[in-house]
Amino acid sequence: MKLTFQSNMYLKDPKALPVYVERKVHREEDLPPIHEHEFYELVLILHGQVFHYFENGSYRLHGGDMILIRPGQFHRYVLDDGDSFELINCLFLPELFEPDWLTAIDPDGKIESFLLYPFSNRKDEFHPRISLALAESRQVERLLEEMLVEQTQGRAFSGTVIRLKLFELFHLILRYQNEAIHREKHTGSRRTDPKVIMIQRVHQYLAENPELKLDIEQMANTFGVSSRHLNRLFKQQTGKTVMEMLHFIRIERAKLLLMHTNDRVVDIAARVGYDDTSFFTKLFIRKVKCSPGKYREEMQFSKVH
Fold first, then answer.
1. How many CA atoms does the CB half-sphere of 291 hold within 13 Å?
2. Model's pTM, two decimal places?
3. How far apart are the first and last CA of the chain?
4. Phi, psi of 61 (to 5 degrees)
5. What residues pair up with 4 in beta bridges, in sequence order?
6. Does CATH number 1.10.150.240 belong to domain 193-304?
């Protein structure tokens, strides 16, 4: 049976703010059945891979892929046994696009066209997804995370800030799509550069296995380069060394666990790859500017209020 997801399942006050952002890890046992919804759903796959069944077709999604599901379109995710994937999605109603907003922010009607024909190829035919480069994916994730923080904290003018960030996100996606089409027209595309592919694979490995001990030498040997060369290339592409990226991924995963579980800090530290809880706590304070316990307290207080 096909289900229809209603907006009131997610949106507390659709008239005041017809937008909802959520970050979630999906496993086989909690995947929803085939369904449609009365809202738009913009999805960024963060980590892992999953089959996406959409209308009458299917294709595999990987970290860095984005999809847009329009109201009334049926879809579902299917995982292989034991697999999981993490996404961050943004649900929004058509009411978001008030004429005054669109006139001021999108005078050429680019966003309206995108919502009707998302991720089109050179022939302006529908394409089921857009695959973002690593830096692009990180920028989209950052914007969605900022929207999620605004939604969680509910500070003054948060509704306006969320709307503006969503419109910024639309324009970024349109830019990335245009650049992807331009790259397709030229041989030797940056996206097919072996160095770029190597960095993307390393990043994907870190994102999917943050709890494992990292052996940079062994990882570099796998790609036939020195650890120094790997770090240099990685920093050129991402702005961080391999170890800096691993710490970043671990801390971000810890923040989610602190927000959405009641696990002890020592257990969360172990789950994200730190046997030394003291080291984890000091690193967390340096990166987040507060202790894990304080972060959990503030996030849970924001949810209640």
1. 7
2. 0.63
3. 37
4. -105, 140
5. 36
6. no
Query: What is residue 4's predicted lDDT score, i.e. its pLDDT?
Result: 83
- Could you identify the residue written with the tokens 């929803």? 32
CATH number of 3-184: 2.60.120.280
Please classify residue 12 by burial: count the beta carbons closer than 10 Å to its beta carbon, then call 0-12 exposed, 13-18 middle and 19+ buried.
exposed
Picking from 112, 106, 47, the residue whose alpha carbon sits closest to that of residue 245 is 47
Token couple for 29: 């046992």
Please tell me whether residue 12 adopts helix, strand or coil conformation: coil
Q: Could you give the percent of the chain with pLDDT greater than 70?
A: 85
The residue ranges of every structural domain in the chain are 3-184, 193-304
Q: How far apart, in Å, are the Cα atoms of 147 and each of 65, 75, 259?
A: 19, 25, 16
Q: What is the mean pLDDT of residues 95-122?
A: 69
65-69 vs 40-54, strand pairing mode: antiparallel
pLDDT tens per residue across span 202-225: 887 787 778 888 888 878 877 778
125 band by pLDDT with thresholds 50, 70 and 90: very low
Query: Beta partners for 140?
Result: none
Report helix angle 134-153 to 227-238, nearest 10.
Answer: 60
* Residue 204 near residue 246 (C-beta atoms within 8 A): no
- Give the CA diameter of the chain: 56
Residue 217: enclosing H or E segment and its boundaries? helix 216-222
Instruction: Look at residue 291 and tell me whether its pLDDT is greater than 80.
Output: yes
Within 13 A of 49's CA, how many CA atoms are on the CB side? 8
Which has the closest alpha carbon to 293: 269, 272, 270, 265? Answer: 265
